Structures are given as structure tokens and as C-alpha cells.
Amino acid sequence: MSMQSRRDFLKLAGLTAAAGSLPLSELLATSSLSAGKGSIPFDLGIASYTFRSFTLDQAIEMTKRLGIKKMTLKDMHLPMNITEQEMHVVLDKMKTAGVELSSCGVVYMKTEDEVHKAFAYAKMAGIKMMVGVPGAPLLELAEKKVKETDIALAIHNHGPTDQRYPSPESAYMLIEKMDKRMGLCIDVGHTQRLGLDPADEVARFFDRLFDVHIKDVSSADAKGSTVEIGRGVIDTTKLLKTLVQLKYSGTIHFEHEKDQKDPLPGVAESVGYVRGVLATL
């Protein structure tokens, strides 16, 4: 992608609005990058881990400013020990804000009891998919719970330092003969940090692709860290083109791990960049 194209995308993303000059949600919603022939063929969402240093109310507000209407909530925003009454409060807040709870997670499951609790938690939230990491010995129990609850489980890969599921394949090979609701959440950053092309991995395992955590990383090795999308080594155009060609109909969730105390400008740039690429496909 040329530098001119990049400047066009960022201009339309309204980065200056993130600093307060104009409502960011208005610019992102009305941009030519999200309308007409450039309409987005799947949903965009936010992984609330992006806003881990902020309250749920603040995370919802920032998501609205980005013009995004779906969120997957991590446990700092949706505690695992939440009560039914507290859950209703969370869901009411999101409904009032016009933001849908698309999933929860990543939920880690190290014991049988944690598997049971995780699915009860997801059922209470009223969602149809949970992003989770059950240990390999717990996969059969997880599959049983998937069948009981009709809540799909998307296993998240965590790259070179993950002893459980470093790559999409490491999870896929264990679940490929299980219930079709046992699938994958491919984290494109961690996938690239293994030296794997995220677009190729999406294509290889598309039959079990339930979710995508999208980001960019500084290098294709274990030292790679999150950067704004378009500034790193991931071929985002190839990734998005692959998702469009395969008719992916789920959600891609932005997970911006950089600038923990001030993530909004970086994630706004990333959202604008992705919308810009999609408008060219």
C-alpha cells in the first residue's frame, strides 16, 4: 500500500477527532470507507482488553466513539464471579449504548470446575460464543458443555510463548473431529509472531473460524509487539481480502495492546486503516 493511500485512510478515519476536534463516531460512521460499494462485509468489534485500564462505562463510550457496535468483554469488564443482577446491569448499559455483547473472553479453564463455571457465565450473559482456552485434557468436557448449552467455543492461540495453543493448527488438530461448534479465534498478531501468514492460516482452518482478533505487530518473531494496523509486518490487505473471498460472516475484533493508558488514538488509526482497505476490495 502506498503512503498516499495510507494518508487517505487515516484522514478519513478522523484521527484528529480522537483528540477532540470532532465526534470520532460521526466521522467513522459517515466516511466513504464505510458506505456504498465499500461496505464492510462482516462486523467490526472491539476486544475490551484494549481498554483494560478503564472502566466498563469508559470502554463502552470509547467503542461508541469509534463507530463500532460490538464488543467482546474480558473479565476486568465482565467478572467471572458476576451475579445475575450485576449481569443485567451490564447488559442494560450496553443495550442503552447501542453496543452488542458479541462474546466474552479470553476465558481460561484449567480444571473441570472452571469449565462448568465458564459455560454458566457465558449462558448468563446470553451469548452464543465464548472465546476460551481450556487445557487439552478438558476439551472433551468442553465439547460436552458446548452440546448442552449450544454455546460455541472459539479457542484462542497465543503465539510463541504459549505452551497450550501457540498456533491455530495446534488447537485445530485437537478439535477437528469434535462438534462443529468447537472452533477457533485466530489472533493474527500471535500467529504472525510464529512466522506464519495469518491470511494463510485463516484459509487453512476456515471451516472452524468463529472469531478473529485483529492487530499488527512490529516483527514476525517472538519479540514482535502490537503496533497500529498498517505500521507493522502483517499483510492486512491480504488478510481482509481472504476473509471477504471466503465469505466470512462473523466479527473481527480489534485488540490493540499498545498504549494501555491511552489506546484510543492507536485503535482509531487501526479502525480507519481497516475500513480503508475494505473500501478498496
Short descriptors:
single chain; 281 residues; alpha/beta; TIM Barrel; 8-stranded parallel beta barrel; two-stranded antiparallel ribbon; 10 strands; globular; disordered N terminus
Principal-axes geometry comes out as globular
Contiguous helical run count? 12
Q: Strand percentage, roughly?
A: 15-25%
CATH architecture: Alpha-Beta Barrel
Chain-averaged pLDDT: 90
Helical proportion, percent range? 40-55%
Global structural class: alpha/beta
Distance between the termini: 13 Å
Biggest sheet, spatial arrangement of strands: 1-2-3-4-5-6-7-10
- H and E string: HHHEHEHEHEHEHEHHEEEHEH
The CATH topology is TIM Barrel
CATH class: Alpha Beta
**Strand segment tally:** 10
User: At the fourth CATH level, what is the homologous superfamily?
Assistant: Divalent-metal-dependent TIM barrel enzymes
Radius of gyration: 18 Å
Largest sheet: 8 strands, parallel, barrel
